[in-house]
Amino acid sequence: MAEVVLNGISKSYGDQVALENVSLTIPDGSFVVLLGPTGAGKTTTLRMVSGLDQPDNGEILINGQAVNKWTPAQRNVAMVFQQYSLYPHLTVRDNLAFPLRSPILKTPADEITRKVNDVAEVLQISHKLDNKATALSGGEMQRVSIGRALVRNPDIFLMDEPLSSLDAKLRSDLRIELKRIQSSLGATMLYVTHDQVEAMTMATHVGVLDHGKLVQFGTPREIYEDPVSIYSASRLGTPKINVLPADLFGATPAGAVSIGLRPEHIRTGEGLAGQVTRVEHLGDQTRVHLRVQTHDVITLADVHTTAKVGDEMLISPQNPLYFNAQGGRVK
Amino acid sequence: MSSFSVTEPSKRQKWFAGSLVILYALITIMPLIWIIATGFKSPSDAIAYPPKVFFEPSMEGYVNLFTSRTRLPAEELAALPPSETWYQELVRDNGMVITGPSRYGQRFLNSVIIGFGSTFLSIFLGTLAAYGFSRFKVPIKDDLLFFILSTRMMPPIAVAIPIFLMFRQIGLSDSHLGMILLYTAVNLSLSVWLLKGFIDEIPLEYEEAALIDGYTRFQAFYKVVLPQAATGIASTAIFCLIFAWNEYAFAVLLTSGNAQTAPPFIPTIIGAGGKDWPAVAAGATIFLIPVMIFTILLRKHLLSGITFGAVRK
User: Fold this and answer.
1) Number of folded domains in chain A?
2) Could you give the 3-state DSSP secondary structure of residue A262?
3) Most buried of the four, A275, B169, B215, B242, by CB within 10 Å?
4) Residue A321: which domain range?
């Protein structure tokens, strides 16, 4: 339960800049999701907070205290690694108990048993407790790895794509479970993902990273509805936002070069004509791929649409976002 | 994970491969069997031509190995009280009496102390050095590693004379400590390089996880890295022990009494009262046992690859 502040953090590995002057406040009890493609600096940010890496510049504060010189153990953080990192020479039970047996916690044996069993139940791995960590499937390993963080009561949870290798059913179960645990503990969570559903459903705040810079920080709705740039707008939304020349649909604000249209921000039935190139029935929604002049556009149609490949469809923008030549937002 | 051949080998292929392995095993085990058998032959059987494959076993070699004897005239021998033990009897049949134990036991003990002592030290120092080279930024790391390796580029015996003089100067001649330090110095390049290879294979994530889980760097090393390096440590220890155990040249030059190991001692048996091949063979047979036991005990670690698969690559 802690507030974490990053103050002008920079970090380079050799001549590779990983983070550039990142300032970020993670409020106590918040669930912050970091978004960005590989190499944007998401994992590096986690490593800075965890203490596994030291920033070249800047200050990290946990609960108002500068922790730059503290070891990971002193910071009382729990981390779920993308590569699981289960101790291969230990059983699942010993893996889960490992942080509790640390010289810092020195938990009594009966309490270890209780906590390990509780966590194993939540993560549905009770029947595997006596297996060697290496004798698990990828999904089971990842659950044990999450469990190893949950058995403790850390100030901050750091999670690096913890759900990425689980199957869809388990992912949605654990998504809800993680969110429930986080809010019931009032825990502070810093979470890295590529998955927009995870970001939208779990986050209280989303940070968008681009080449080591924090370009936008706000609630998931802010990021989705009010992105500062094309880059930010492209982080959230499936299918991705359509980016088209601004003048395609007529008059534009001054300076606008591109127009960004989320699939649901396209009205059909009037406006510009496009050829249907593909129809995807997903059950709860239907995606229609269009060819408008020389541009590809994806929009949503009525679930029971009769549109088929080759049909003509008229589209016009609704609540469009405009961007300038640098990709910045024009309001 | 593991690799599979596309087709299961046929029965004939398996049979052929198995025969080859057995043939190779027979060839390599022949000298060993010969030495063990010679230890149980009588001196005349040991040098018989053509060699005797079937012979009447005799304990003479082992008795001669462990005892000092002296020849007595027949009448003095006859005047002695009757033999109390079977080995006294055996020696008297050859016209001799036992005057006391030989020095083999003590030499053997020296080998154990020096062999295992230097192996332990080589592994202890080697593991720490290898971990440091593997995980930390060490200035001029590559040069240091090359320097460590370069100590192996000449035969160790090339430095025997300087070492002999140094040891005499600082009082390490013919001492257990001196031999332990010397064998450790020779083995260290091997152990650092081998162990660095094994530790490099252990992903850094495990230690990072342990650091986050509330452990110090040393505890992470001790609780997470060491158990996973067990395979490497075991095989390196076997190499170190085999070298220190069998080393002959330094032992001849630098030890004479107090700290003499078994390898330079065994040949001296040949000179004592004719060529006593069974005693030499008996000495060699017993000398083989500790390394054999050590290797069998560590075999489990040699075969188990325990780091498989718990880190997603």
Assistant:
1) 2
2) coil
3) B215
4) 239-330
